[in-house]
Amino acid sequence: MLCSESYVPFGFPDARHLLVFGEVYPIDENDDEMRNGPWLFPIVDDWQKQPGWTGKRPATVDDCEGVLTRAAQAVTAYLGSTPERTIVSDATTVTGPAMTHRIWRTPTHALVLGPHADNGPYGYLTHLQLSLTPLACAPDLPPAHDTDALNRWITAHVDW
Fold first, then answer.
1. 73 closest CA partner among 41, 104, 116
2. Cα separation of 125 and 119, whole Å?
């Protein structure tokens, strides 16, 4: 699914563009009634029927990391360079476990691959997404050892 800050996703280089390629519904192991599952599972089941989508229930964090790793390999192959930063973080997720974020930069844009909270009606989901954001949001990458600053940098580029 392609999302954009703009009403028209193409032709606006200053807008954030988000390619969502995976959805994670973090299960609360203490919620025996799975209050959100009954209305959400049929929607997720419908997504799984679409071309290019598959599903796995239950899925583990390792399953999600596998999806992120394969996506990172595709981005690396396309850009011809490895990520500048890789960090395991939950800075941009409201629910769900910490997962890996990877960051690449072009001369004008940042590409951030990793998990992100859903800001819409499916607020219980965590998106696995590739964000394309103008570097103007925060051009300089913090040092790899400054995880707090790096988490703020990631949030500045992927949150919409």
1. 104
2. 9
